[in-house]
Amino acid sequence: MILYPKIDTLYRRLNNFNVNVFNFTRKEFSIISEWTLTEKIDGTNIRIGLNPDGTIELGGKTDNAQIPASLVTFFNELDKDAIRNAFKQDEEGNYPNVTIFGEGYGPKIQNGGKYRDDASIIVFDVVVDGIWWLSRDNVHDVACKIGLDSVPMIYNNIMWYPRSESDLHDIIDTSIVAYWNNKDSIRPEGIVARPDPMVYYADGRPIMWKLKFSDFNKGRDI
């Protein structure tokens, strides 16, 4: 399985670790005029891998990352045939090499207990053969086929940048994912943005940025 690339924060940081809203971390962010926004979930990175021989494996953010026991149990109970059937075999019966990226969340997993009362995995990206990043609609389709949620889209083709905590509240005031799980008025962690269709850096990584509510009020000195 491939590793998920680092997502840059939209803005560079000041000495107190708050963001400087007049200084993007990447020049590409100023060139792209429209962004699709999804909710950022506070949990732990999880990878589900489908290998060409049909075997399925579970991984964390890195190959050596420890995975919470509750997520291992959740993975063990997933319908593995549904994962295989979500992708076509070639003429020789081989599956594509697929990495499904998700956020493991729930009680005692970072702050994931605020979203739901049990452990789960929510899908945010699917990469085929290490290079093909599926579109948002196709990511949602794969998630549905394997019995998982996908991160909710908040806006499609937004043309302005949030520059304050108030702006973030205007975009997403309460967590959609928490609402799905009957938990109302839960503050979200933040947002993740990308162009639609995807645009890539020269090294093949997709161009994305993130912004959290805490980026505006860290208040720490170095």
Rg, please? 18 Å
Task: Figure out the total of helices.
Answer: 6
Assign the CATH class. Answer: Alpha Beta
- Average pLDDT reading: 94
Corresponding CATH architecture: 2-Layer Sandwich
DSSP summary, beta strand count? 13
Number of domains: 1
Distance between the termini: 37 Å
| Beta strand % | 25-35%
What best-fitting shape do the alpha-carbon axes yield? globular
Extract low-pLDDT stretches: none
The CATH topology is given as: D-amino Acid Aminotransferase, Chain A, domain 1
Biggest pleated sheet: 6 strands, mixed
CATH homologous superfamily - what is it?
A: DNA ligase/mRNA capping enzyme
This entry's quaternary arrangement is single chain
Helicity, as a percent range = 10-25%
Structural class: alpha+beta
Secondary-structure element string: EEEHEEEHHEEEHEEHHEE
In a few lines, what is going on in this structure?
This protein has 222 residues and is α+β, with helices and mostly antiparallel strands. Helices cover 18% and strands 29% of the residues.
